[in-house]
Amino acid sequence: MTNTLYEISADFLAALDAMEVDPDTGELLNADQLDALSAAFDEKAEATALYIKNLTAFVGNVKAEEAALAERRKTAEKRVERLKDLLASSMLSVGRDKVETARTKIGFRKSTQVQIDDEGALPPDFVMTTVTTKPDKTAIKKAIQAGQAVAGAVLVENQNLQIK
Known about the structure:
single chain; 2 domains; 5 strands; 52% helix; Siphovirus Gp157 family protein
């Protein structure tokens, strides 16, 4: 006898095609083979259906775990930002711009950022047109660094915490 559901199905169809009927009594002559294949088919179909149910439950559990992990990741990311802010604030309040130990090196890296005070006042040369308009901060930064006054924008120096 065959093992797979596909093979059982093929054997079942072949048995149906080969079914013989006694011309005198109208009795099915190979009904035992059909019954055996039908029972085997039912067992395999049930086993397959139960496996599908288990996989469906597994998929649901994985989706729930993905959502839980995404929430945990967001919480951890927010905690990292709060702790970085706390560390930076504490270092600045005691006048330290770097701390170095055997296991870590903490310091500030200076960067400049264009701060747009009035987007509507920016000259057209410094506005990139996309689906929506937004200031071209790169061009504004270059212009201000070159000594050009850009209405509606100033350079602001930030201190970004680095942990290596």
